[in-house]
């Protein structure tokens, strides 16, 4: 599966944010989104995920192929860690595979109500959801927020060895280096700006 974006323009709160954005992410590859606060990383990921419509352009992505992950990952506070994972696998018609408990170091916490987890533990559970639902296209907004160094490493290893190695792809907004051999797309080059001719610098491949 390949993600193709052509001539994309996106807006937030009615204001154009990015314009004339084109890129391709192939199976097994990741693209890192860069840019200062407000550059449009979240806005772009939300449009790619289908949570907001584009202003213009084309996104070539099969329906039901993507998973979007940001701060709120739909964790059910009263269910245990294990029950949350099973809830997601059942919802997406996937096998109740326990391997993600180890991938995200959640096995010691499996019986804990999710509402009692620390911020970083909760983040790990949110990321483990991606392992349970098995979507080939991951759209990740600051996935390492609240994670300690060991957890960042474990997540990067999962992404590389399990997701990308299996032919999945990922678009990731992150300020934290993940050690992936992945190209970076600086969104400041594509700012929609009604006062200048910026945004005509189109292709990023
Ligand atoms: N709900 C909203 N209504 C109006 N404008 C918004 C809204 N949310 C964000 N914006 C604006 O849209 C622009 C892009 O924001 P976005 O959140 O996509 O940036 P970002 O690159 O993800 O930033 P950060 O690094 O801070 O997470 C910014 O100018 C921001 O102020």
From TrEMBL:
Record's keyword terms, sorted: ATP-binding, Cytochrome c-type biogenesis, Membrane, Nucleotide-binding, Translocase, Transport
Pfam families: ABC_tran
Gene Ontology molecular functions: ATP binding; ATP hydrolysis activity; transmembrane transporter activity
PROSITE patterns: ABC_TRANSPORTER_2 (PS50893)
Biological processes per GO annotation: cytochrome complex assembly
SMART domains: AAA
Gene3D superfamilies assigned to the protein according to its UniProt record, in alphabetical order: P-loop containing nucleotide triphosphate hydrolases
Classification via InterPro entries: AAA+_ATPase, ABC_transporter-like_ATP-bd, ABC_transptr_haem_export_CcmA, P-loop_NTPase
Protein name: Heme ABC exporter ATP-binding protein CcmA
Taxonomic placement: Bacteria, Pseudomonadati, Pseudomonadota, Alphaproteobacteria, Rhodobacterales
């Amino acid at each position: 599966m390949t993600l193709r974006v052509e001539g994309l323009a996106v807006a937030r709160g009615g204001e154009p944010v990015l314009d004339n954005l084109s890129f391709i992410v192939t199976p097994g590859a990741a693209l890192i989104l860069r840019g200062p606060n407000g550059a449009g990383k979240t806005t772009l990921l939300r449009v790619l995920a289908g949570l907001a419509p584009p202003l213009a352009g084309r996104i070539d992505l099969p329906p039901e192929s993507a998973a979007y992950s940001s701060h709120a990952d739909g964790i059910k506070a009263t269910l245990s860690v294990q029950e949350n994972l099973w809830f997601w696998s059942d919802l997406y018609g996937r096998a109740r595979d326990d391997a993600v408990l180890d991938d995200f170091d959640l096995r010691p916490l499996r019986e804990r109500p999710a509402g009692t987890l620390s911020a970083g533990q909760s983040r790990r559970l949110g990321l483990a959801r991606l392992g349970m639902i098995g979507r080939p296209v991951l759209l990740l907004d600051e996935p390492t927020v609240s994670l300690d160094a060991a957890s960042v490493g474990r997540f990067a290893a999962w992404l590389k060895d399990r997701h990308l190695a299996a032919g999945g792809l990922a678009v990731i907004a992150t300020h934290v280096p993940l050690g992936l051999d992945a190209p970076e797309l600086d969104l400041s080059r594509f700012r929609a700006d009604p006062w200048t001719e910026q945004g005509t610098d189109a292709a990023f491949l």
